[in-house]
Amino acid sequence: MLQGLSELLSEYNVLAAFWMTIKLTVAAAIGALLIGTIVAIMRVSPVAVFRSAGTAYVTLVRNTPLTLIVFFCAFGFYITLQYRIGAQDSPIDVQNFRWGVLGLAVYHAAFVAEALRSGINTVPKGQAEAARAIGLDFRQSLSNVVLPQAFRGAIAPLGNVMIALTKNTTVVATIGVAEASYLMKGMIEFRPDLIYVIFGIMAAGFVILTLPLGILFTTFSRRLAVKR
Amino acid sequence: MSAETSVLFDAPGPKARVRHRVIAIAGGLGILALLFFLIRALGARGQFTAEKWSPFLDPVTWTSYLLPGLRATLVAAFFSVILSMICGILLGMGRLSQLRPVRVACGVFVEFFRSVPVLMMMLFAYYVFLFGIQISGELLPLLGVIAGLTFYNSSVIAELIRSGVGSLPMGQREAGLAVGLTPFATLRLVLLPQAITLMLPSIVSQLVVILKDSALGFLILYPELVRSGQTLASLKGNLIPTFIVIAAIFIIINYLLTRLARYLERRLQVRGRGPKVSEFEELVSPSMAPGGALAAPGQT
């Protein structure tokens, strides 16, 4: 088994595949946080039109399989409609990566928005009322009282979204981006005799990626928790 | 959420109401313009021609592609739900066991399968069935999908059960023990039935996750809705309309399930058995990450 392990590691570039997973995760996380924040702001806005637009986005995106969203980006917008992201002459695998990131970002943005909103919901109404009662104006009460508590309340759910995002990057294997699960499929097809070792390596890789993330977010959410 | 009950904003006065109306009109026009440009871009590339959409008026499209695909998706989801419930309850009981080795073993199992992507477990199960047990034919992809979904979702349900039991009043357990039940009988007869009722909304929401994740079966050639849709699309050359129709099917089913979950949640609260909302979210949210559920986020 140890021999199989070293054979696999010398034959296949496992690290490169996980590096791709990390790149996908970071890029999609940035995109999801950006879009998600906008959607969250729309969902809590006092203007009804924005609220319904935000709710519509969350309802539509959250109920669609990620696989379908990623296909929509890669096969629909890229292959069928010939839209390209960034440089027009970049090769197919770069385009697939970018469209994959966009799909991941669009999907997880809905969950980021819900996480931020649930953070705002943890702030009791009395906090805002107390802020106004001691004479803070709208801006001061929001920036000094309400939002700091809301961000702290959003850390734990945001952590869950980020961990799920890390695992969900495997879905872009369906459009041929060479990340961890894509490599795993290839490895198993060529070396079915080592299937358990292969699964062990890949699963360990994800445990290594997600476990520290989970511990980090739990620690932060505990340390920054608002005592009530 | 209505503006009046928001923690962020005061109830608007006359000036603010006028301002809101102006913003609403501007924003509404902006959103409409965005939609208009998207639809015009699709239209300009010929995605709204009759030829692209007329296949959906043809009964054969439904009877030989979309409905069999939907059936395959529902079959995979159905078996996964049943198996995940059984395994999840057993694992959850294991995590609450009096015996330390059982507790640790179930804990390691749950934590491991919760941190490995569903797609990897599906691929692994598929190839183990193919090479290890040498199953072949039509059943192979179905078994792969069910196994992958069951591994992941039974861990999630085990966590739901555990947090459900944890949120019950201490008196329940003490009363069970006081009337002479063994710890195991207390768990089985007193705590578990209450925990399952309590967690019913989250379990229904987990159904949404299972339905969505069944689309991952695409990669192991399971003929679920997305794959059968792709077959149809490559035949008729209408990929984008087909994807829109499939997305609509998923959205309708999952939306109804979400509504059912909310209804159950509200009913439990009316009966006074559900935990308070804030408490509930805190308890449940860890297992409800994408892949997760209700108001708090949910894998693919």
Report a brief summary of the structure:
Helices cover 79% and strands 0% of the residues of chain A. Chain A is mainly α and 228 residues long. Chain B has a single domain (55-288), classed as MetI-like (MetI-like fold).
SSE order and pairing:
The complex is a heterodimer of chains A (228) and B (300).
Chain A: H1 2-11, H2 14-44, H3 48-62, H4 66-80, H5 92-121, H6 125-133, H7 138-168, H8 180-190, H9 195-223
Helix pairs in contact in A: 2-3, 2-5, 2-8, 3-5, 4-5, 5-7, 6-7, 7-9, 8-9
Chain B: H1 14-44, H2 50-53, H3 59-95, H4 100-115, H5 118-132, H6 139-166, H7 170-178, H8 183-213, H9 225-236, H10 239-270, H11 277-284
Helix pairs in contact in B: 3-4, 3-6, 3-8, 3-9, 4-6, 5-6, 6-8, 7-8, 8-10, 9-10
Describe the structure.
With 228 residues, chain A is mostly helical. Chain A is built from nine helices and no strands. The radius of gyration of chain A is 21 Å and the shape is flat. The mean pLDDT of chain A is 88. Chain B is an all-alpha fold and 300 residues long. Chain B has a single domain, classed as MetI-like fold (Orthogonal Bundle). Chain B is built from eleven helices and no strands. In chain B, helix 3 runs antiparallel to helix 8 and helix 9 packs antiparallel against helix 10. The longest helix of chain B is centred in the first third of the chain and has 37 residues. Chain B is flat. Classes of the chains: A mainly alpha (228), B mainly alpha (300). At the A-B interface, helix 3, helix 4, helix 5, helix 6 and helix 7 of A face helix 1, helix 5, helix 8 and helix 10 of B.
